[in-house]
Structure to design on (422 residues):
């Protein structure tokens, strides 16, 4: 966390000199040295301790970087002769004033980072300012190594976007924070400085928008897309809901039964078309009797014969008598053409000879079908019993079921070949 006490620049010689000689050993050893762990930040220290204990067969140098692509290059640099210590001093010879480039940046209120690049050694160290790190080297508050990697050759500081000093990094962070806060407070400040009438007008426009939005639901029917209820329609026209409901029911019943006004009943012998033709020729007709009322009175213009003798009324009377009816003398003089048309309108009754012959034919066909079914059933029963008898005979002779089935199948195959000759 940032404090009022200014943070000093890291002492790179004291921080990195002990770490450089340990990199070649880290490229070969699987367990880190305790003194080296004290130089690392708490997060990197926990990473190395945890992963080094689980993967004890691999060098722990790869755990110092978070970039998987840089692991191989970092191992090559650590094994090279660039990090060989001086034979007298035992330290890696580095000119900390000219061979090192450093930048700083503040990420947030609690994080201050530094990036150290050593181009001659192809090494990169990311430093982190840590607070209350009792397990670290030196004071609890100080700089620690947060990552060790290799820099990009073209522009190692391109992605870091830092500053030359800590003071410049702090100033840039304060400007960025103030500009961000100003952008957030700008709409509220503008609303405060607006005149009162403008604020009221904007509030009214917002209320109107809300009213228009909720009015859409008020205009939506209760059961869309069903039509309004009969009571709602009657209330709109000034009628009571009960009266409107009764009227709607009566209209629906009338419309339903009106469909049958133009339907000719199947048992009704009175045909309106025939009656119209008879009226055009001056013949008065009435509805013909139905099949269930054969003993009723004959239609107008037709009466039952009084004698069984044949009269000399001509072919028209004979045709009428064959149907069980005879033409009665018309009160008015009618031409022969009218009598022929009247005789043509007479329908045969169920007692006619044509109807009796048709019924007898149907009964005869039904009787033949029943006899055929009985004969087929008898033949099937005979075949079934014969097969069972043959099977019992085969078992008595010592022939098993499989052999019997093969014999029957062979005979069926032969029958299929000579079926046309049988």
């Amino acid at each position: 966390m940032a404090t009022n006490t200014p943070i000093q620049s890291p002492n790179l010689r004291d921080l990195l000199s002990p770490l450089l000689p340990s990199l070649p050993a880290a490229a070969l050893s699987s367990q880190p040295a305790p003194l080296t762990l004290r130089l690392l930040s708490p997060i990197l220290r926990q990473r190395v301790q945890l992963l080094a204990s689980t993967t004890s067969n691999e060098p722990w140098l790869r755990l110092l970087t978070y970039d998987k692509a840089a692991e191989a290059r970092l191992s090559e640099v650590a094994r090279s002769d660039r990090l060989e210590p001086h034979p007298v001093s035992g330290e890696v010879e580095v000119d900390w004033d000219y061979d090192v480039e450093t930048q700083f940046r503040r990420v947030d209120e609690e994080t201050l980072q530094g990036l150290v690049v050593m181009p001659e050694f192809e090494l990169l160290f990311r430093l982190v300012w840590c607070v209350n790190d009792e397990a670290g080297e030196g004071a609890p508050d100080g700089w620690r190594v947060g990552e060790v990697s290799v820099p990009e050759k073209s522009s190692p500081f391109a992605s870091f976007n830092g500053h030359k000093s800590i003071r410049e990094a702090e100033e840039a962070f304060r400007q960025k924070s103030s500009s961000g806060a100003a952008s957030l407070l700008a709409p509220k400040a503008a609303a405060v400085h607006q005149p009162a009438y403008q604020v009221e007008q904007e509030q009214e426009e917002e209320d109107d928008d809300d009213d228009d939005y909720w009015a859409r639901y008020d205009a939506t029917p209760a059961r869309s897309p069903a039509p309004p209820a009969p009571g709602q329609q009657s209330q709109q026209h000034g009628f009571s809901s009960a009266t409107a409901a009764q009227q709607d029911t009566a209209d629906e019943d009338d419309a339903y039964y009106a469909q049958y006004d133009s339907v000719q009943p199947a048992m009704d012998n009175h045909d309106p078309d025939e009656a119209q033709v008879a009226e055009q020729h001056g013949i008065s007709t009435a509805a013909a009797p139905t099949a269930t009322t054969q003993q009723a009175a004959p239609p107008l213009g037709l009466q039952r014969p009084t004698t069984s003798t044949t009269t000399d009324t001509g072919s028209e009377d004979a045709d009428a008598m064959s149907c069980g009816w005879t033409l009665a003398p018309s009160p008015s003089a009618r031409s022969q053409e009218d009598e022929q048309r009247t005789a043509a309108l007479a329908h045969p009754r169920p007692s006619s000879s044509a109807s009796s012959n048709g019924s007898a034919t149907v009964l005869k066909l039904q009787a033949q079908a029943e006899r055929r079914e009985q004969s087929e059933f008898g033949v099937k029963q005979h075949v079934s019993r014969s097969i069972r008898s043959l099977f019992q005979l085969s078992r008595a002779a010592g022939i098993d079921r499989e052999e019997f089935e093969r014999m029957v199948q062979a005979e069926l195959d032969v029958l299929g070949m000579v079926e046309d000759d049988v």
The beta strands are 101-108, 111-118, 123-130, 142-149, 302-303, 326-327. The chain is about 45% helix and 10% strand. Residues 12-173 form one domain.
